[in-house]
Amino acid sequence: MITSPVLYLLFIVMIVFSTLFLGVISLVLIENDLFINLDTLLFLIIFLFIIKSSHDFYQHFTKSEYLTYALSSPISQKQTIFEVFLMNFWFQLGIWVIFSSLYTLSILLLGIPVGVSFLYLTFTLGIMLATVLGSLIVLHYFSGYKYRLIPVGGIIFLLYFFPSLVSILFLLGVSLIYLFISLSFALDSYQFVKRKTWKREQTQLWLTHPIHAVFYKEVIILWREKILFSILFSAVVLGVGIGYIARFGIAQFLPESLARFAEGIPPEMYAFFGIYILTIHAAVFVSLSFFLNEEKTLWLLRHMPSPMVKIVSGKALSISMPFLCSLPFIAYFFAFIPNESFLFILWFLLFSFFASIILCFPLGARYAGRKSDILLLYSVSLMIFIVLSIMYSLSSIISSMGLFGVVIFVLLLFFELIFFVFVSLKQTANYLSIHYAH
Q1: Domain count of the chain?
Q2: Contact assessment for residue 112 and residue 26, using Cβ atoms and an 8 Å cutoff
């Protein structure tokens, strides 16, 4: 925290803001005598923690380079893998305790009485179950025997239809038994991924120009990791979902007491939220990963004979591929809302990617190799939301000034973006340079 106080400050601000926002939502629901389906909420939280647990277990087990030495030691390999699972288990449980405590504090400050100890126990056991399931998914998905995922799918299926405390306790016991059985062949997953990585390294194509070489390398990684496919899928799903809501209104999904607040929302506002979500996935996450994944090769980047600006420019150029994969969002959105705001939505999507490069590249380079991915992602997400909100408000004001005012505004903003991108790339190169390292 001493080495990156601003990053931790932004992270804490976003966490506090998020919990207070959830507390305010709870207050609005209570004052309007509205109730949510707790079973659905429980399953949603468990699903989110399954994703988080899978990601962390993948990073600390399947993808870990340091684990090779531990697995080669006289200590039992099953014990080593189980210790990795325990670390992941207590980490997820700690996150749940912190967030739930902050949320409880926020609703107490808002004057909402708290007396749901039985419900809290149910949710806590659900988080434990989610951690076990996330670890099992990684163990069996990244292996040559994916059929071993069938019991995990059965557990999730039963959890969806029987989300009670007794059923969660039973499924948690079953999951733990299956986990202990899976530890006997967990090393298959680790070796399977290492073999695939070795084969990929044998088929690399070498290019002479540094910008082209870095562009090719990053695009190949995005392709092999299925990130481009996930961005394309997200763009289509968001385009259809947001377009449908913008066409028929979100009021049909809300209770009558809240439906009146959703009346009169323009289609551009729905597009704003869709573009923000898509930007976090396609631009922010990808831009940060370009540098956070260089943890073990950062020294090599700093000693390459090519200028650092060209290397960074190659990374920035590769953002064009996620941008192209994001364009279906506009096509599917305007399949529901065919009007004259097409150019505005296209420009806003382009601006969001430029803003992501300007913000994410220097921050990603500044904290490269410090395992700050979650902190950076949360912090930059808040910053991007603020920037896009300001731009949306300015665009709404400028649009009332006529065609000439809009053209002048867009041209000035475009040249400013080019300037700030150039400054951002220069600063990123400075952070990655050997002089900054010393």
Answers
A1: 2
A2: yes
109 token code pair = 């400050």
Distances (CA, A) of 89 to 71, 96, 140, 182, 412: 20, 11, 18, 16, 51
Residue, of 417 and 26, whose pLDDT is higher: 417
HSE-up of residue 250 (Cα within 13 Å, Cβ side): 16
| Reduced 3-state DSSP string for 307-357 | CHHHHHHHHHHCCHHHHHHHCHHHHHHHHHCCCCCHHHHHHHHHHHHHHHH
Q: What is the 3-state secondary structure (H, E, C) of 64-104?
A: CCCHHHHHCCCCCHHHHHHHHHHHHHHHHHHHHHHHHHHHH
Question: What single DSSP character describes residue 143?
Answer: S
Q: What are phi and psi of 303, to 5 degrees?
A: -110, 10
The reply to whether the predicted model has a pTM over 0.70 is no
Identity (one letter) of the amino acid at 271?
A
Q: φ, ψ for residue 58 (rounded to 5)?
A: -65, -40
Give residue 93's domain range.
36-197
pLDDT in tens, 16-30: 666 666 666 666 666
Widest Cα–Cα separation across the chain: 75
What lies within 8 Å, CB to CB, of 318 at 6+ separation is 214, 215, 218, 219, 222, 290
Name the residue among 381, 431, 376 with its Cα closest to residue 8: 376
Boundary-marking domain end, from 149, 164, 197: 197
pLDDT tens, position by position, 299-351: 666 666 677 888 888 888 888 899 998 988 888 888 887 765 777 888 888 99
Please count the other Cβ atoms lying within 10 Å of the Cβ belonging to residue 174: 16
How far apart are alpha carbons 186 and 61 in whole angstroms? 10
In a domain, 290, yes or no: yes
Instruction: Compute the distance between CA of residue 250 and CA of residue 253 in angstroms, rounded to an integer.
Output: 6
Has residue 346 been placed in a domain? yes
Boundary (domain end) residue, out of 197, 232, 261: 197
Residue of 290, 269, 422, 275 whose CA lies nearest to 358: 422
Q: At what angle are helices 308-317 and 402-432 packed, to 10 degrees?
A: 130
- Model confidence pLDDT, tens digit, residues 197-238: 555 555 444 555 677 778 887 888 888 777 888 888 888 888
